[in-house]
TrEMBL record:
Any single GO BP term: GDP-mannose biosynthetic process
Pfam families (UniProt xref): MannoseP_isomer, MPI_cupin_dom, NTP_transferase, PMI_typeI_cat
Gene3D superfamilies, A to Z: Jelly Rolls (2.60.120.10), Spore Coat Polysaccharide Biosynthesis Protein SpsA, Chain A (3.90.550.10)
Domain Mannose-6-phosphate isomerase type II C-terminal: 340-443
Name this polypeptide is given: Phosphohexomutase
Residue span, Phosphomannose isomerase type I catalytic domain: 457-559
UniProt domain Nucleotidyl transferase: residue ranges: 2-152
Species in which this protein is naturally found: Hominiventricola filiformis
Residue ranges constituting the Mannose-6-phosphate isomerase cupin domain according to the UniProt record: 685-758
Highest taxon, organism lineage: Bacteria
Length: 760
């Protein structure tokens, strides 16, 4: 199961604790942790990957606060303009397989005590029934700003209150916690049924998104026509598939300063003295300041290092109007606080004066500041912890705790953290200063100070596909970790946006393969790949429980013009097959478009295809334009150009679990199909102009001397042992895939089995 974390929202309501660019979900509320971090930690036991949806303004905060979760797999969706929850969740689901299960959570609440784990487990049990499960907690009264629901005679009723009031006698309502569990395909199907126009707009948006990397930017221009709408209004309030579930846990939403004070059970926060006060809450976040309240009643006081807010209780929400009316004059205080996240770490202002400023600077492991110069101020750095690599002018030195560095005005400088722990320094700036983060910084050209060599060898984890014709052999026999009902394909070596493989070993574990290549440069692909704009190959396993659709792939010219993708020449290596297994490859006679269209219509297209019996160990080269299909009971290792362009001609009129026919692409297929008779037989060699494949039977020890012409991929078909390159040594088992960057090196296998070596 994957977790969709909704972490948008502005920073007005908890001002001055939160700011426009540092909203409430990221401020430290609980034991020096944020609500965002609490949400991640709470759901790690249930989810193997997190999809985080937030504003692009908060990208650095998200990346910074995720630093504490080592090895966490996550993907971020950064919105330039929020459109509420229904579109946001749909975009995340459409960027993944329909068979994925999701837990949707928000970051505006705290859960402490009770059986949260049990509630999630009970909710998951309804997902296979096609239910959208919404978890609530019992409410004792209606409060403004909260959502409520109940189920009456199978119908879901929702309620929002503008005032605080008692729940009518005899009625039972629950707080809508915003916690929702479902299968991605079920959610999208309900959205398409209940809000078809909205669904179509979101589909069009996703089709145009760049989903290549782990971070997905959602431009404002792509969502301008999409209506902002909540999941409740678009789906759960109108769907018959909704299942309400009561959670037995303590839940509290942090919406206002009053609700935060209630969370602290009326106790003051920080250094506070109250004298003859009644119903007064003081939240003092300035650790070096004391707040004294005398003779006050019904008041809340919030003190931070740079701002104080005093309000009558139950009126703190007026801060939104105050900010609006005074924004132009005091923008810096409303937008930014004393804590500021950057791409490399955190800056925290400890003291600010007209000509002197003191900051605590934290630089994350492996991060560095750009080389730059200040013309109006000097800086003095003292290392508190960690090791600082500092380039001052042309001189590079390292400094440990207690080290002191003076940076004169006009001196080029750069600082980096090349260690595995946070680097913390205190910076004192003297000169002409601006409030906030200033403009007295001129970036200079320079070489990166943090350099990481790529691994000599990495094992990859695949992306999975759940086409309805698939089987379960990849999980049952080969141990692939995927909980789909069927696993039709596992994309073992892929940077394609439709499914990227992930680095599973080494220093870069958890990176998508495309990110791995970007991090270390395209040079690791070898000089043969230089002409290619994109990564050129894709390797997958295909397990056909049923016959695949009869299909065809276009060549490069057509695919690049029509689909902005490469064409798709492919090689099939038969890893295993059942008796009487077969493939369809090419026409058994010359034909034409009219006959093919007629046979598609009357269901007789297979009658004019070459039906080829197959045996384990054979290989077949499928050129673009060749009509083809894999028959039932065959396990294929497919090596192909990196393309996902498939034109279906015929699919046996099969329907998916929602009763919908799979899409055909007959018109485009007619543009590219080869209508001539084709004689097919097993390939004698496994190479073409796009790739070369060699099969090896491993003895006790086998070595391969590589060069810098191309990267290599090794696909294990049978056997166990270890694969070694340089200092890297990794166990192998059947269906493992290894990526070896280009270079003069030796790869050695110790063990037995069969392996395919693939290169450009």
């Amino acid at each position: 199961m994957k977790c969709i974390v909704l972490a948008g929202g502005s920073g007005d309501r908890l001002w001055p604790l939160s700011r426009k660019n540092y909203p409430k979900q990221f401020i430290h509320i609980k034991e020096n942790r944020s609500l965002f971090q609490e949400t991640i930690a709470r759901n790690i036991p249930f989810c193997e990957e997190f999809y985080i949806i937030t504003s692009d303004r908060y990208a650095n905060i998200v990346e910074g606060q995720l630093q504490v979760f080592q090895g966490l797999r996550y993907r971020c969706f950064y919105e330039e303009e929020g459109k509420k929850t229904a579109p946001a969740v749909a975009i995340a689901c459409l960027c993944d397989n329909r068979s994925e299960d999701y837990l949707v959570v928000s970051t505006d609440h705290i859960i402490e005590g009770g059986d949260y784990k049990g509630a999630i487990a009970r909710a998951k049990s309804y997902i296979p029934q096609g239910k959208l499960v919404s978890i609530g907690v019992t409410a004792d009264r209606f409060e403004p700003g909260y959502g409520y629901f109940r189920q009456v005679n199978g119908h879901t009723e929702f309620h929002h209150s503008e005032v605080s009031e008692q729940i009518p006698e005899g009625e039972s309502w629950e707080y809508d916690t915003g916690i929702l569990l479902f299968n991605g395909g079920d959610y999208l199907h309900e959205l398409s049924r209940k809000s078809p126009m909205l669904y179509a707009q979101i589909r069009e948006c996703v089709d145009r998104l760049d989903t290549y990397g782990r971070n997905v930017q959602i431009p404002k221009a792509l969502v301008e026509e999409i209506e902002p709408v909540s999941i409740g209004r678009a789906v759960t309030s109108v769907s018959e598939k909704v299942q309400l579930l009561t959670g037995e846990f303590n839940w509290r939403r942090i919406m206002t300063l009053e609700s935060l004070a209630d969370y602290y059970h009326g106790e003051d926060s920080g250094k506070v003295i109250q004298n003859e006060c009644e119903n007064v809450s003081v939240l003092n976040e300035a650790s070096h300041q004391l707040v004294v309240a005398n003779g006050l009643s019904d008041v809340i006081v919030v003190n931070t290092a740079d701002a104080v807010y005093i309000s009558r209780k139950n009126e703190t929400d007026q801060i939104k109007n105050i900010i609006r009316d005074n924004y132009e004059e005091q923008q810096a205080y409303f937008d930014e606080g004393t804590v500021y996240y950057t791409a490399w770490g955190i800056k925290e202002t400890l003291h600010y004066g007209t000509s002197c400023r003191v900051k605590k600077i934290t630089i994350f492991p492996g991060k560095e500041l750009s080389r730059h110069v200040h013309k109006l101020r000097t800086e003095h750095w003292t290392v508190v912890s960690g090791t600082a690599s500092i380039l001052l002018g042309e001189e590079l030195k390292e400094y440990g705790p207690g080290g002191n560095i003076f940076v004169p005005m006009g001196m080029a400088h750069q600082i980096a953290n090349r260690s595995a722990e946070d680097l913390v320094i205190i910076e004192v700036s003297v000169g002409e200063l601006e409030y906030g983060h200033g403009t007295d910084l001129t970036r200079l050209a320079g070489q990166p100070m943090v350099k990481t060599d790529c691994d000599e060898l990495v094992r990859l984890e695949p992306a999975f596909k759940d086409n309805l014709w698939g089987g379960t052999r990849l999980r049952d026999v080969y141990g692939k970790k995927c909980n789909y009902d069927v696993i039709a394909e596992s994309w073992e070596l892929s940077t394609h946006k439709a499914g990227q493989s992930v680095v599973a070993t080494g220093k870069s574990k958890g990176l998508m393969l495309g990110e791995y290549i970007d991090r270390f440069g395209r040079g690791i692909l070898g000089w043969k790949c230089e002409p290619y704009e994109r990564f050129p190959l894709l390797i997958k396993f295909i397990d056909s429980h049923q016959c695949l659709s009869i299909q065809v792939h276009p060549g490069d010219d057509y695919a690049l013009q029509k689909e902005d993708e490469y064409g798709k020449n492919e090689l099939w290596y038969v890893v295993d097959c059942e008796p009487d297994s077969y493939l369809y490859c090419g026409f058994s006679k010359d034909t034409d478009e009219e006959e093919v269209r007629q046979r598609i219509e009357d269901g007789t297209l297979p009658e004019i295809l070459n039906k080829i019996p197959v045996r384990k160990g054979e290989s077949y080269f499928i050129e673009t334009g060749t009509v083809h299909a894999i028959g039932p009971g065959v396990l294929i290792c497919e090596i192909q150009q990196s393309s996902n362009v498939t034109y279906r001609l015929y699919d046996y009129k099969r329907r998916d679990k929602y009763g919908e026919l799979r899409e055909l692409h007959v018109d485009k297929a007619m543009d590219v199909v080869n209508f001539h008779k084709k004689d097919m037989e097993a390939a004698k060699t496994m190479e073409c102009k796009y790739f070369s494949v060699e099969r090896y039977d491993l003895a006790e020890e086998n070595s391969f001397n590589l060069d810098d012409s191309s990267f290599r991929a090794f696909v294990v078909l049978e056997g166990t042992g270890t694969i070694r390159c340089g200092e890297e040594e990794i166990p192998y088992r059947p269906a493992d895939c290894f990526f070896v960057p280009a270079g003069k090196k030796t790869v050695a296998f110790e063990g037995s089995g069969i392996v395919l070596k693939v290169q450009v």
